[in-house]
Amino acid sequence: MKADLHCHTVLSDGAMDLDQLFCYAKRIDLDYIAVTDHESAHSIPAALELGRQLDLNVIPGAEITARHKETGINVHLLCYYPADTKRLQKKLDKDLKLFSESVVHSYQTLMDEYPVTMEQLYDAARQSTGIYYTHIMQVLSLMGYTGHPIGELHQKLFSPGSPHKFPTDYMYADEAIDLIRSCGGVPVLAHPGQYKNPELMEMMAQEHMIDGIELYHPRNDQTTMDQIQSICKEHDLFMTGGTDFHGLYTKTPYPLGSFLCPQEGLERLILAGKQANEAFHKKKGKDIRPDEA
User: Could you tell me which InterPro entries the record lists for this protein (predicted)?
Assistant: First the structure.
C-alpha cells in the first residue's frame, strides 16, 4: 500500500487545493493520503467525503506546532484521526491567530523596503485559514523580487535572528499532546531531523508523549533515521512517513509520493486511530461509529 501521510493544501501553506491534491494522488496510484495542514483540521470533513468519491483512503489529520518545555524547541506534532475536530480546532484557532498576527507584523516591517500593500497579502491568503510566510513570498514573487518563493530571499527575510521574523507563543508540547489524545487523536512526532536534537526524541518517547515518529521525510538523514528506528524499537513506537508536500512552496522540490509510510507503520497507525476513536466515544458515552480511512 502506498501511503503519503504528510501533505499540505492552500488551507495552510501549500500550493494545491484539496481537489488538485487528491486528483494528483490518484494519478500516482496512492492508496492512502493524510492532509496535515498547519494548525488546521478544517479540511477533514471535505477530505473524507472527497476520498470516498475518488476511492482514496483518507487518514484525517493536522500538524500542530508546540514548544517542548525542557529544550525550548518548537516541535511539530502530527495529529491523526481526531474524533472531536470542533474542540481541536477551537484550540488551534488561538495559536493560528497568534501566528497570523506575527506574520502580518513581519509583512508590515517589509513595507518600507518593498512597495507592497496589505490588500495584496490578504488576497494571497484568501483561500487559507490563516496567514503564513508563504503568502508574503507569493506577493514578492508576483512583483518580481524572486523567482523562487522558498529560496534565498525567504531565507534572508525569515531566518532566526532576522529583524523581520517574530516569535509565536505556541502551547507547550505536553498540552498539545493532551489536546490530541482528549480529542481521540493519535500523536506522532514529525520530521525529527529538523530539530537536530536526538535527546528530544528520546525524552518524548520515554515520557510516553507520542505513539509514533515520522521516519521517512526529506529532512531526516540516515543518521536521524537510524536513531528513530532505535528509539521506536526500544519504546515500541510505530514509524510513519510522508513527503511534507507543499507543491511549489518548498526549498527543495519533492513530488507527492516521494516519501511513503512503511506498511507496518501504516497498519499500526490505522489500528491506533480506531482504538483512540473507540475510547473517545466510549468515554463520551456516544454510540457513534468513528470515521474510517
Answer: PHP_dom, PHP_domain, Pol/His_phosphatase_N, Pol/histidinol_Pase-like
